[in-house]
Amino acid sequence: MRPFIYEQPADISAAVAIASRFTTDDDQPTRANAQFIAGGTNLADYMKLGVAAPNRLLDLNRLEEPALRQIRVSDDGIRFGALVRMGEAADHGEVKRRYPVIADSLRLAASGQIRNMASLAGNVLQRTRCEYFRETSWACNKRVPGSGCAAMEGFNRQHAVLGASDACIATYHGDFAQALIALDAVIRAEGSRGARKIPFARLHRLPRDTPHIETDLAADEIITAIEVPAMPWARRSRYLKIRDRESYAFALASAAVVLDLDGDSVREARIALGGVATVPWRARAAEAALQGKKLDEASASAAAEAAFADAEPRQHNAFKIELGKRTLVRALLETRDMKV
Amino acid sequence: MSQNPASSATGLSRRSFMTGTVSAAAAAPLLTSAAKAEVPAATHSKLREAVAVSLRINKRPYELSLDTRTSLLDALRDHAGLTGTKKGCDHGQCGACTVLVDGKRVLSCLSFAVMNQGKEVTTVEGLASSEGKLHPMQQAFIDHDAFQCGYCTPGQIMSAIGCVNEGHAHSEDDIREYMSGNICRCAAYPNIVAAIVQARDQARGA
């Protein structure tokens, strides 16, 4: 691991000021000399592997703003401070009651230990676990721009079938993000250019020909909160995650589903897919396919077909298309049958 | 002839021999201080300069002088000489390094020691009473033969205590789900679950 200087800024503006001093406008947050750390479960791992090599680590855990550690429930929705830990949000009574899809997505992610450590903001920013990204001897356009992609012709069973490009097929492995994108969440961030709101759907960038640009954030910008709008019908929501083993594994396919039902028929559906795409993936075509329809196996299957219409398989991951469709069908029917 | 494989002919146990070797080799030796911990800021501004880190480990204050890159796991094992916490994968995949920090179970391999300044760390060495009476979770692991090789056991026990304290040990299914971050290569899982049930019931004052 590269040696690094460790600092504990006292508040958000101090953290931004230090980051701003040691980064440039062209720096990507993941490649900048100064980087933020909160739980560290992703960054410490990647520093050990040499994938991340910050020269200066800014520890956000001592920031004094209390809101960073709070979950606030109001008529407007729910606001998660950026430093709230995954486990705390997963166990929060109002989160479980109002947004089961959020509680599910957090509970089914990682392990008890990691959920105690990992912050919510860090969780949404977690980087891919593509084996060729993790191991620095392989070519990887995300890790070293322009170096190529060893996954294209490699063992790509874990890789994405949606949102990929000729430069990168790495999967976005998070779970919480699928719930957030389905619920139209908003990110609040602060940087040297001030505070701003970012629709969650615009936080992550498709790889295209610049897979090393992973998010919309500047290198000196800190996520301060995640806001989820009030949505009474989100009580009928869930997150279904299919894995190689029953627990503590990344999704091969997952689905976040939120349903507004009028009897049997769908007034509105929100659908996001995990484990199959390069970024948190909102399946708008599937949502549109369900609107006004009676939700049954046939309409759910039609929606799943729409969700994967543009899927592009590689040598080892074609199974994800069928698995992803079945996962979505099951998630839709189970959500329909929830007692709320 | 001694039947105890942990003892050598010199009377040195394997454990104290290993620990001694490690401490002698460590660049920054342990400085234990009984002085009141003042928690100075661990911020520093020079590369490769050792940082003074104050930790409370098993209710005792430690002053360590560490490279910023030192994980909490390595600080415990190599600098504080507490080798009960085990290094398995060193990448957050196995759970062998689980300890409690401020009462919550965490992976010490994925935490830089310097980030734990002033925190209360509990390792497997801190569980038994000063008279040597085992923690109910330790006793339950013995009662149920909840290990084979034993390498994952300290992490399993620390994680199990965290799991019960968090209220995530309601059922056996619950225990399996919330203990999934601790891998046991010998697959002692059924016995681990039984041990946790016993210790949970004891903790409830059954």
From TrEMBL, chain A:
The record, for SUPFAM superfamilies, names: CO dehydrogenase flavoprotein C-terminal domain-like (SSF55447), FAD-binding/transporter-associated domain-like (SSF56176)
Q: Which residues form the FAD-binding PCMH-type domain?
A: 1-233
Superkingdom of the source? Bacteria
Keywords (A to Z) from UniProt? FAD, Flavoprotein
Q: What would you give as a GO molecular function for this chain, any one?
A: oxidoreductase activity
Q: Which residues cross the membrane?
A: none
Q: Which InterPro entries match?
A: CO_DH_flav_C, CO_DH_flav_C_dom_sf, Diverse_Substr_Oxidored, FAD-bd_PCMH, FAD-bd_PCMH-like_sf, FAD-bd_PCMH_sub1, FAD-bd_PCMH_sub2, Mopterin_DH_FAD-bd
Q: Name one Pfam family in it.
A: FAD_binding_5
Instruction: Spell out the protein name for this chain.
Output: Xanthine dehydrogenase family protein subunit M
Q: Which organism is it from?
A: Mesorhizobium tamadayense
From TrEMBL, chain B:
Q: Which PANTHER family match?
A: OXIDOREDUCTASE WITH IRON-SULFUR SUBUNIT, OXIDOREDUCTASE, IRON-SULPHUR BINDING SUBUNIT-RELATED-RELATED
Q: Which named protein is this?
A: (2Fe-2S)-binding protein
What is a single molecular function from GO for this protein? Answer: oxidoreductase activity, acting on the aldehyde or oxo group of donors
Matching entries from Gene3D superfamilies are given as: 3.10.20.30, [2Fe-2S]-binding domain
Keyword terms of this UniProt record = 2Fe-2S, Iron, Iron-sulfur, Metal-binding, Oxidoreductase
Query: What Pfam families does the entry give?
Result: Fer2, Fer2_2
Domain of life, per the record?
Bacteria
Cross-referenced PROSITE patterns, in alphabetical order? Answer: 2FE2S_FER_1, 2FE2S_FER_2, TAT
Which segments constitute the 2Fe-2S ferredoxin-type domain? 51-127
UniProt key word Iron-sulfur:
yes
Which intervals of the chain form a coiled coil? none
Q: What is the lineage of its organism?
A: Bacteria, Pseudomonadati, Pseudomonadota, Alphaproteobacteria, Hyphomicrobiales
Q: Which organism is it from?
A: Mesorhizobium tamadayense
